[in-house]
Design brief:
This protein is of the alpha/beta class. The chain contains six helices and eleven strands. About 25% of the residues lie in helices and about 25% in strands.
Length: about 240
């Protein structure tokens, strides 16, 4: 089954679920009940990381419960929709990126299941499933999104936005985009063998990229503009997932 982990500003991409259910996990409740959506005749699962009302800050998300719940219902492939800021000034606002690397700048997040029978040490050289990345890239191009193939995602702690000096550091470290949610999502998915990869929407310039302050209300329009393109992407993607 294909599943989606969705940012709070992209809830409009998924409306009118066919059903929803609460899934008990050893780590508590997921951010939302799992919604099931019919996408071109295929049933897909959706969890909204920050809640349907976007009330859960990134550092408070129960990442372990979210990932475990998806595994529990039989999900095999997971797309992480992420809203991001640009670290690379050549990335236009409103563009899409399929990252291939992550640098983790977070702290104090539960990054392992710590459960008997589940390995604590595993290969994370390439943090995203190459199979899933290729499927996302193909579907995104077919839907007209023209994504950038590759780039390093800087995962910051949040919930505040970054300083200009932090963005400069991320750029020095080789990052292209910055967000707050893909860590520890990605390693948790790898730990229990989910095919996980991300599609990132660039919705604002990182702090200090230009003279403007980060326009948080203004950046929301880019997520609204992305609703229909992402729905086209979903239709293209379900054709490529077994």
């Amino acid at each position: 089954m294909l599943a989606f982990l969705v940012s709070g500003t992209l809830t409009k991409v998924f409306e009118n679920p066919i059903k929803s259910e609460n899934v008990e996990t050893p780590f508590g409740q997921a951010s939302t009940p799992i919604e099931y959506h019919d996408i071109d005749g295929k049933t897909c699962a959706v969890i909204f990381r920050h809640g349907r009302d976007a009330g859960i800050a990134a550092h408070r998300v129960n990442y372990r419960a979210n990932i475990w719940a998806l595994k529990e219902i039989g999900a095999t492939h997971v797309v992480a929709f992420a809203t991001t800021g640009s670290v690379d000034p050549d990335l236009p606002i409103g563009s899409f990126v399929v990252p291939d690397q992550i640098i983790d700048y977070t702290h104090d997040r539960e990054g392992s299941f710590e459960t008997p029978g589940i390995k604590e040490h595993f290969d994370f050289t390439f943090p995203f499933s190459s199979e899933m990345r290729n499927q996302i890239i193909e579907a995104a191009f077919a839907a007209g999104l023209s994504p950038r193939d590759g780039g390093t995602y800087a995962c910051s702690q949040g919930p505040r936005y970054e300083t200009a000096a932090e963005i400069a550091k991320f750029a020095h470290d080789g990052c292209s985009i910055v967000g707050m949610t893909l860590m520890p999502e990605a390693p948790l998915a790898r730990q229990i063998s989910l095919n996980y990869a991300a599609l990132a929407l660039v919705m604002n310039p990182g702090a200090g990229i230009d003279e403007r302050a980060v326009d948080i209300p203004g950046s929301i329009r880019y997520t609204d503009d992305a609703v229909q393109p992402l729905q086209r992407f979903n239709s293209e993607l379900v054709e490529r997932i077994p």
